[in-house]
Amino acid sequence: MQPPSVSYSAWWLVSAVVTVAFVAFFVPLMPDVRKKLRVCSGPVLMAMLFAASTVIHWTEARVALPMYCCMMLAAIISGVGRRPVIRQWSLAPENATSGDFHMSWGMRVQVVLAVVAMTLLMIWLCAG
């Protein structure tokens, strides 16, 4: 099965929509402005990473945009249905250790499946 032929400008539009979805999902869960800014910096840093990899010629732009979209979607899918847990984690003090956080097996499975599914989708989209 061949991947869909999506134009370069359409990928920019999809990237913008996915970025808005990421921000709309995670920012309301953050308790203060500093943590909201940290969440918003995620898409910016990822975009900078993919822009740099395109400039350095590690990847082509037609590959970098689907990669960005799939990685952002993996983060969103990983958090679907887990908003109370994410909110609880965001309320933790800055000096909390990783042992203070509990991730249920269901959430672990959800994260792994989201990352695997989006990685497979990314490979399929970039194969064309």
From TrEMBL:
Statement: the UniProt record of this protein carries the keyword Membrane: yes
TM ranges: 6-27, 39-59, 65-85, 105-125
Keywords: Membrane, Transmembrane, Transmembrane helix
Transmembrane helix in keyword set: yes
Domain of life: Bacteria
Protein name according to UniProt: DUF5134 domain-containing protein
Native source species: Streptomyces hesseae
